Request: fold
Amino acid sequence: MGHFGVFVRAAAVLLVFQLREVLCDITDGNTEHLKREHSLIKPYQGVGNSPSSQWDFWGSTLVTSSYVRLTSDEKSKQGSIWNTVPCHLKDWEMHVQFKIHGSGRKSLHGDGIALWYTKDKLHPGPVFGNQDQFIGLAVVVDTFRNDLHGMDRSFPFISAMVSNGSVNYDHGKDGRASELGGCSAEIRNKDHDTYLAIRYSKGRLTLMIDVEDKNEWRECIDIGGVRLPTGYFFGASAATGDLSDNHDIISMKMYQLMVEHTPEEEIEDWTKIEPSVSLLKSPKDNIDDPTGNFRGTPLTGWKVFLLLLCALLGIVVCAVVGAVVFQKRQERNKRFY
Ligand SMILES: [Ca+2]
Reply:
């Protein structure tokens, strides 16, 4: 083999090694980046009972070995569970496995679950068992239609809200005035578990749901221009009124996303950021961010990279084969002349 052949072979070996590294990154994504200090996982050992516990609960919340019941299917209950460790990750993804079920038929059930990433924790109030005028992010799984004028959407309805403490959640209007977006989803009384994922990365808030037992994420909300600080607390709360449901959290799994930031972003004190949303950003800023690792749909950016790498590898393999064939022909030619 000539110099060219050796070079091509070396390049191919190098590429195979790089490819293997990329593949490892994808398969390890979900388990290696799980942050146990922010995750609530069966059988919830020590939750609320021991001084070393990383979760605290309040109200009607009942912790069993297989679920955390925020409210039972009874009137006028409120309960919550909170991570006591502030989250200092800049880019994260929270996967929530939950179950809302009860004996109420048609629309005779309520009120729903709210998931929180807020400055304060364990602060009971009228918004699904948590305080109004909260500071941070709320994701609401609203199972009861309060606003009879808003018939253009079906319930349960999932929505998100970001507040710096100056905005009220209007329960009578199902929070419509303050929501950033949302989607309808049939999540009640399913035979299988239902999932919701909240991703916050590079100023982008994405909500995905998996409620059809197909192990596939469906996008619910995806907006840019969202500013959330580090150092807040994750929590979940639920409430019942005249109508009720069992509101169960099976697990909350927190994943760190590996994302590079600009030097300016690295210098900034992220604990000082005030929660806000700039809806005036250009559509260009709302293009898909190639990060994150939602269950079942691994890193789209990496996929593209992999595809390119495979294409490159294909070209190199062709070149090697070509070179070998060329050399063989040369040798044969030598024999003939
Ligand atoms: Ca409602």
User: Anything to note?
Assistant: The helical segments are 3-32, 263-267, 300-336. The first helix runs from residue 3 to 32. The pocket of calcium ion is lined by residues 111, 142, 144, 146, 174 (CB under 6 Å).
